[in-house]
Amino acid sequence: MNIAFKSIKVPRYQQLIHTGQVVNMDVEIIGVNDGYSQLTDASLVSLTLYNPLGVKLMTESPLERIDLGIFRTFYQTRPSSVKGVYTGTFSARLGDVYARLDKVAVFKVVKNSSFETFTYLAINDQLGTTWYWWIDDSESLVANPEIPDFINLLAAPISGNPYWIEIGGKFIYPQLDGTPDVVLSQPAVGTGVNSSPVFIGTNITDYGLTVNQANEIEVISV
Fold it and tell me: Residue 150: what pLDDT?
């Protein structure tokens, strides 16, 4: 049996974007046998992404399997991203069988954005899964398994990828569902930071985190 790429799908609203926006990509893989084809899994599907100047932005980055024969990845453009068409080389492998698509157009950055920017923190739980925390308009700490993507706002990462945040001898860390929790001893896995990062909320206000006497997480203006 041979394998081939059936489609590379980018949501219509992400095919022409402003700088700073996220692009999601779904890839469908089919197995071909005696002229009959159907969706099939591959042992590895990867993407090398190029900007309009030919600079590599992702190199053989593996895609995540989300269903039979369907694999997903994303790319977060930056406010400084080059305008123009971004291309990708997609590769797939199933045993000793390979498939490849060379430098196909994936999306186009059409203009620089003047949108306001908020920030998010990528933080790992004790199994190494990455969660994304940010402060929403209600001044609440939000946890999500994907990078936040708003039509009228740019999302920028806070540097670092900690497993916990230490504040006054107490530790804020993500539970296995990403929900923030407080413990009194350092989590067993990973390294952390010794003060709250400064978040720019979706209401474009600066916030930090603290822990009150009841060991509850509070969002405070800074």
Answer: 75
Q: 187, 169, 174, 172: which is closest to 219 by C-alpha?
A: 172
Burial of 216 per CB tally in 10 Å (0-12, 13-18, 19+): exposed
Neighbouring CB atoms inside 10 A of 152's CB total: 8
Pairing of strands 44-50, 56-62: antiparallel
Write down the CATH number for the domain with range 2-111: 2.60.40.1930
Structure confidence at residue 86 (pLDDT): 97
- What residues does each domain of the chain span? 2-111, 116-221
Radius of gyration of the chain (CA): 20
Give the closest residue to 210 by CA, choosing from 202, 201, 219.
219
Percentage of the chain with pLDDT > 70?
A: 96
Neighbours of 175 (CB within 10 A): 12
Of 26, 34, 22, nearest in space to 6 by CA? 26
Using pLDDT thresholds of 50, 70 and 90, give the confidence band for residue 21: confident
Query: Is-contact 143 174, C-beta < 8 A?
Result: yes
pLDDT digits (tens, 9 = 90+) for 183-198: 999 999 999 999 999 9
